[in-house]
Amino acid sequence: MEETIEQPRKIELNDGNLMPLLGLGTWKGKNLSAEVCQGAAETAIAAGYRHLDTAYSYQNEVELGKAIRSKIQQGIIRRQDMFVVSKLWCTHHAPKDIPLCLNKSLTDLQLEYLDMYLVHFPVGLQKVENELFPMKDGMMLMSDIDYVDVWKGMEALKSSGKVRSIGVSNFSIQQLERLLTVATIPPAVNQVELHPYFVQSDLIEYCKSKNIALTAYSPLGSPGRSKEYHRGDKDPEKLLEDPVVGQIAAKHRRTPSQIFDFRLDLEDMSALKSLNRGWKVCIIEE
Question: What is the mean pLDDT of residues 232-259?
Fold first, then answer.
């Protein structure tokens, strides 16, 4: 008897498109070999993942494209079953460069359109050949292009049909407020770091009030992150090893990282929120 995979739950975005609630983030895939990265994505799709999150700067879109194409050819999925997200990198904020960045991602992913395209950061970098982080005299070369102007280019991409939904990543309340004053199309999503050590309750409530879906990255505290993201004695214990997380997991007879087949009650949520320490995984400190 053929095994059937349960379809993931979805949320309706403010533009009417549906996004699976659970996604596979591939940020760390750039640290893997091409074969391992592609194999991991194929395994995830076979296991039921239908939401894949990548970016121009992750440098793994060729491998993810091969994985998606492989599963389509095997009859495991159809293109319309997948929700693929990529991001506009900071060196491509100039009006002429925005479609170039998108087209590079589409080519590498072997796709005709993206389900979601995000502005990766609200700040830009100068474009210096193909460098992701252009530097001079030890300093990052910042650009003066306003993210409000970048958003106009994102709206044009949506109108072109190459992007189904558009959104932002790593935007604060103040940046979202400013963007919304000029946006013809409001962002469908704000993707930010979010986990029990970095709760961001104010941002959650703000996004709810504006009907902007908030996507959490590093929701498990990013165990196994690369060494440049470790901060010595400032680095707290791993989130999944926190006693409070362990107690809640034991209460529900689940592992600390398990997210299916049960619900957290108000007491659980209050306990998890109490772990907030304003600690971010995704920063590099001197």
Answer: 85
Helices (H) and strands (E) in the chain, counts: 8, 11
Positions annotated as catalytic residues are 58
Backbone angles phi, psi at 24, to 5 degrees: -95, 110
The pLDDT tens digits of the residues spanning 59-113 come to 999 999 999 999 999 999 999 999 999 999 999 999 999 999 999 999 999 999 9
* DSSP state, residue 149: H
> Parallel, antiparallel, or unpaired for β 18-20 and 10-12?
antiparallel
This prediction has a pTM of 0.92
Quick one: tokens of 242? 């926190």
Residue 51 belongs to domain spanning: 10-187
Task: Cite the annotated binding site for substrate by residue number.
Answer: 120
Domain-located, residue 118? yes
Does 217 reside within a domain?
no
Domain count for the chain: 1
Say which CATH number the domain at 109 has: 3.20.20.100
